[in-house]
Amino acid sequence: MGDDQKQSFCYFYFNHISRRYDYFRQIIVKNFKIWYLVNMNYLEIAQNTAKQQPLLPPHETPGQTWKTRLTFIWALVLWQASSALPAITMNRQGHFELWKIGLFLLLFAACVWLSYIWALRYHLIPKINWRYFQLGKIAAGFGLMFVSALISGMIMNLTGTNGTENQDIINSIGKVLPPLVFVIMTTSAGFFEELIFRVGPFELLFNKWPKLAAIFAWALFTAAHGPTDFASFMTYGLMSLVLTGLYAKYRNFYLNMSVHFLWNALGMIGFFLLK
Predict the structure, then answer these.
(1) 263 and 240 in contact (C-beta within 8 Å)?
(2) How far apart are the C-alpha atoms of 88 and 106, rounded to whole Å?
(3) What percent of the chain has pLDDT over 70?
(4) pLDDT tens profile 122-144
(5) Is the pLDDT of residue 57 over 60?
(6) 0.70 exceeded by the pTM?
């Protein structure tokens, strides 16, 4: 092949490649524009939909009467019943019967459901919705609980206290219960205790007097955990201060329940690791 023929062939080849490149480039650009417009349009629609979707309104409790306030006794009965149910499965020899565990789970679920229905019926809490579980606030609440535990630990070190009698009782109960039952019994406090110690005072008993509700909620939670000395009083007093403060600020049962649940779950992890 002569030089002229080689040049002609190269020119033809590169010209052909160039045209093919331009063709594919146009197709890619065209398809990219279509993809961009479609996705940007979808994003714009999603953003507009999110803006138009109303946020969950703050929960407002209707006026309560003394008759409705007396229903708080029903909540107390359910709470105490749920606390006594683990005794069904208790066995000091470590032999646990499956049917007793099943009975416990059934009755416990009934207590939870009846308590939830009671709170909904009297408009004490809103229906469960994932938007009430705000991760940032849950993390902040958990952090405050951790800080209160650090302060309590310092007080115990200064006073020469090794722990609280309430925690010792819980640990001893954990040794004679099936692990599943013990975990449910302990972590469920995040549900029952927040209904009794936060929702009850704020939304039912003293709904017209929020400051009185806060004092009562703090004192009731602290007293219910049976402090026997200054260190244990500060331990549960600080814990109650955090949880009561959270509820007073946000009036969000599901937020308090989540923080309380996570804190007790952390305690369970420590119990089983030390065991």
Answers:
(1) no
(2) 12
(3) 76
(4) 999 999 999 999 999 999 999 99
(5) no
(6) yes
- The Cα–Cα gap between 244 and 237 comes to 10
Q: What are 11's two structure tokens?
A: 């020119």
CA distances from 268 to 140, 194, 204, 262, 265 (A): 21, 19, 32, 10, 5
> Quick one: tokens of 121?
């019926």
* Residue 85 CB burial class (10 angstroms; 0-12, 13-18, ≥19): buried
Per-residue CA distances from 157 to 144, 154, 168, 199, 226 (Å): 20, 5, 17, 34, 20
Give CB contacts under 8 A, 24+ apart, made by 106-113.
107/81, 108/82, 108/184, 108/188, 111/78, 111/79, 111/81, 111/82, 111/85, 112/82, 112/188, 112/191, 112/192
The span from the CA of 188 to the CA of 108, in Å, is: 10
- Examine the pLDDT at 94 and tell me if it is beyond 90: no
